[in-house]
Amino acid sequence: MTYNLKSGHATLDDLVDGSLAKNVALQGAKTIFYVEGNSGSDTGGDGLTWETAFKTLAVGLAASHADISSGNRGWASRNVILCKGDYLDEDLVLLAQKTDVIGVGSVNAVQKCGLRGNHVPVTNDAFGTRFYNFFFIGDATTGGDIWTLGSKNANVQFHDCTFHADSATAATAAIVSTGSAFVEIHNCKFTGKFSDATIEFGNGDTAGVRVVGNYIESAAVGLHFNSGVLDRTSGEEQYILVMD
Fold first, then answer.
1. Which InterPro entries match (predicted)?
2. R_g of the chain computed on alpha carbons
């Protein structure tokens, strides 16, 4: 089953090394961190240049999260992580407060950063993490849900990303969100035979959810909202936008 929700938009597909983003989009960043999955080091570098890049996104996220809350110069700012790698094999358990994570370079022939694993960010409270230009795929052995979001996260956003179901074991879902407010999914592609709903919103806080301009495939259901999400009294306002 295929759901085609598309709209015209600019993408980051032409980013080779992050230079365009750094010159145009990142001028307001407090700190820019770098992650290089092939040649970086989590112990030998500070993550502040490509030459001293971290190796894993988990370490980059932890560094940005600590940096953005390190003083009053940081708290009203946003940080940026530029990330490249063929496939970073990680199961993320944390996100970074007020951080844009931008995939650059290529994974094989795809102009994105590859990230393989099942991500359940529950270690810290992190609001306002945004992902751009990533190629997400589930764990090669277990499949499972690629992203599971909960009340520890709010205003998590995905822009111009691809979520692919077909690893050695097909992924169950791309994004499962329960109690995570203001989730936004813009101009993403969901490809392959997800065995459950590709995008699922469970019962809980769904205020401000926006699902806009996406292409969605599934072996089951493309987009599912739990009945409890929509069954609200007038005092429990929910703002949900789903559109082409």
1. Pectin_lyase_fold/virulence
2. 17
Residues 186 and 160: beta-carbon distance below 8 Å: yes
Residue 233 lies in a domain: no
Q: Residue 107 falls within a domain, yes or no?
A: yes
Length of the chain counted residue by residue: 244
Which residue in the block uniquely carries the two structure tokens 């879902």?
173
pTM surpassing 0.85? yes
Q: What is the three-state SS of the chain?
A: CEEECCCCCCCCCCCCCCHHHHHHCCCCEEEEEEEECCCCCCCCCCCCCCCCCECCHHHHHHHHHHHHCCCHHHHCCEEEEEEECCCEECCCCCCCCCEEEEECCCECCECCEEEECCECCCCCCEECCEEECEEEECECCCEEEEEEECCCEECCEEECCEEECCCCCCEEEEEEECCCCCCEEECCEEECCCCCCCEEECCCCCCCEEEECCEEECCCCCEEECHHHHCCCCCCCCCEEEEC
Containing domain of residue 198, as a range? 2-228+238-243
Question: Side chain identity at 12, as an amino acid letter?
Answer: L
User: For 158-180, how does the pLDDT look when each residue is reduced to its tens digit (9 = 90+)?
Assistant: 999 999 998 778 899 999 999 89
* Encoded tokens for 225: 């909202």
Looking at the structure of the chain, the number of domains it has is: 1
Q: How does pLDDT run across 177-219, given as a tens digit for each residue?
A: 998 989 999 999 999 999 999 999 988 788 888 999 999 998 8
**Which region, left, alpha or beta, applies to residue 231 given φ > 0 means left and ψ of -120 to 50 means alpha?**
beta
Asked if residue 39 belongs to a domain, the reply is: yes
Residues 241, 211: contact at Cβ < 8 Å? yes
